[in-house]
Design goal:
Blueprint (H helix, E strand, L loop, with lengths): L7 E6 L6 H14 L4 E4 L2 E3 L6 H10 L5 H4 L6 E3 L5 H7 L6 H13 L3 E9 L10 H8 L3 E5 L5 H14 L4 E7 L6 H17 L6 E4 L11 H5 L4
Parallel strand pairs: 1-5, 1-6, 2-5, 3-4, 6-7, 7-8
Helix pairs in contact: 1-2, 7-8
Length: about 230
């Protein structure tokens, strides 16, 4: 594992469809409003035949547009039409993902920005290649993580397993984002939060649990506790 970086952060989720892209875009917008030079990256986009949809969403939430770095492919090294795990989508396209190609693009982005937010694909242990799991790639690069979760059924299990996987690799967790978007029973919302906060404590993580009330109420989210840990 490389020495931990402080200018690159991986945004990961407990599963697919949990809100990683929205969180990445909103955090980038927050940092941009703080005067920081920030760029987002989606190393592998699947289920896409044109411009990477997650990058487009990032730019929309940031209040910016498609830029020359996006056009050059630096913010998305691989894009495949099949909506599946990166290793499978690549194979079906007759290609193979080279992690070093992604790392090189990230380093180039970092050289011109204060912070790079790297959005992962699916859950933590999705295979990037036949040999490399996504979380192991991030661990090897030394990236601190932000983990996105939700109160939907199954999230307690996925969250606690994700915390175990992060701790097993001795990685830094900057924050757990609790995405409340959707219609969830209040009993589950409250109980899931309680168990997730207890899980953070039990695994030795001192990071904050940050509430994302809803996409349309996103401006009320306080992202500062997550990024303040980078300078500590």
């Amino acid at each position: 594992m490389k020495e931990e970086t402080k200018d690159i952060v991986a945004i990961c989720g407990i599963d697919t469809g949990v809100g990683k892209s929205v969180v990445t875009g909103l955090m980038a917008a927050f940092l941009r409003n703080q005067g920081q030079r920030v760029i987002t990256q989606k190393p592998v986009q699947t289920g896409c035949t044109r411009r990477p949809e997650d990058i487009l969403l990032h730019r929309q939430l940031m209040g910016t547009s498609w830029n020359e770095l996006d056009e050059a492919g630096l913010t998305c090294s691989y894009s495949f039409p099949f909506a599946g795990s990166p290793h499978l989508a690549a194979a079906l396209a007759g290609q193979r993902i080279d992690p070093e190609c992604i790392s090189k693009a990230t380093r180039e982005l970092a050289s011109g920005h204060d912070l790079v937010l790297v959005e992962g694909a699916g859950g933590l242990l999705v295979p990037m290649t036949e040999e490399v799991l996504q979380l192991d790639y991030f661990a090897e690069q030394g990236y601190p993580l932000v983990l996105v979760t939700s109160p939907r059924l199954g999230s307690i299990n996925h969250t606690l397993l994700s915390l175990e996987a992060i701790r097993a690799r001795n990685m830094t967790l900057l924050g757990l984002v609790y995405n409340l978007h959707g219609d969830h029973p209040i009993e589950i919302v409250r109980d899931s939060r309680r168990i997730m906060e207890r899980g953070l404590h039990q695994h030795g993580f001192s990071c904050p649990l940050v509430l994302l009330p809803d996409y349309h109420e996103s401006r009320s989210t306080n992202w500062q506790p997550i990024f303040s840990k980078l300078s500590s």
